[in-house]
Automatic annotation (TrEMBL):
Source organism (scientific name): Hymenobacter ginsengisoli
InterPro entries to which the protein is assigned, alphabetical: ATPase_NBD, Euk-type_GlcNAc_Kinase
PANTHER family: N-ACETYL-D-GLUCOSAMINE KINASE
Name the record gives this protein: ATPase
Lineage: Bacteria, Pseudomonadati, Bacteroidota, Cytophagia, Cytophagales
Entry superkingdom: Bacteria
Length: 284
């Protein structure tokens, strides 16, 4: 049996593929190695894996995750996977490679992620040929859930949010200034916390304030990241992630404003990623 995983910063979507190629989906927490160590991943997996799953029956694990870039980050995740799935061959790669394989298969092109964080690349059909660093939620991640959530929180705390939306925000979350700052600076996974507020912009997308905030986030995504790729307009814009999918109309307008046609926008890469790996077996 094979396990294929798309690991974001907030959650990981897993697909179990049986010998007859039947698929079963389940979810666990996200395992970004910038925020969790090997022991933490092992503990979470043992707690959240389905009770019907026999880890020793898994023969192969393909895990693609957020921030799995450096050899140390790869080792953090790979060691955890090997400790839980003791009989499996384990592959650990970057979630950007998963996005490219899901969006483009074996065709060269442009792929992006717009979820809790953001990332992008030119893909050569096998691997990532060119990547402009998004710099993470502290310095960049323009267009991401964290970027949108940060703007909402800043406007809420500074009193720059329209009065009716401020009332709705307070009613929805019930958070005071000190609670927000404590979650940001003293509690684990601040990126998840910030990104969770992007849903407010989606839930109130009819408000011009939210429309403008999202449009500005996507405009900065193209201005500060996408336009740094040579000949970026020669590619179609393909994207995976909840933020890109939920705000796909605004994203399409932003792409058009910067001279890119939109190709494929999907919420999750897991179905297409599983198909990619099953095709590998058929062609092997």
């Amino acid at each position: 049996m094979i396990l294929i995983a798309d690991g974001g910063s907030t959650k990981t979507t897993w697909c179990l593929v049986d010998a007859d190629s039947s698929r079963s989906l389940f979810h666990t927490e996200g395992y970004n190695p910038e925020f969790i160590d090997t022991a933490g991943i092992i503990a979470s997996l043992r707690q959240h894996l389905p009770t019907t799953l026999a880890p020793n029956a898994i023969t192969e694990v393909y895990y693609y995750g957020a921030s799995v870039v450096s050899p140390q980050q790869v080792a953090t995740v790979a060691d955890a996977m090997q400790a839980v799935f003791t009989q499996a061959h384990v592959f650990v790669g970057h979630d950007l490679l998963a996005a490219a394989r899901a969006l483009l298969g074996r065709q060269a092109g442009f792929a992006a992620i717009l979820g809790t964080g953001t990332n992008s690349c030119v893909y050569d059909g096998e691997g990532i040929a060119h990547n402009v660093d998004s710099l993470g939620y502290f310095l960049g991640d323009e267009g991401s859930g964290a970027f949108i959530g940060k703007a909402l929180l800043r406007d809420y705390l500074r009193g720059d949010m329209p009065a009716d939306l401020k009332i709705a925000f307070q009613a929805t979350y019930g958070l005071e200034r000190d609670e927000i700052l404590d979650r940001l600076y003293n509690q684990p996974f601040p990126n998840r916390f910030i990104a969770s507020f992007a849903k407010f912009a989606y839930d109130h997308n009819e408000a011009s304030y939210c429309q403008q905030l999202v449009a500005e986030a996507f405009d900065l995504f193209f201005r500060n990241i996408i336009k740094k790729y040579p000949d970026y307009q020669a590619h179609t814009f393909n994207c995976v992630g909840s933020v890109g999918y939920n705000f796909r109309d605004a994203l399409t307008r932003a792409a058009a404003a910067h001279g890119m046609q939109v190709g494929k926008i999907i919420r999750s890469p897991i179905d297409d990623l599983v198909s990619y790996h099953l095709d590998e077996y058929k062609n092997a």
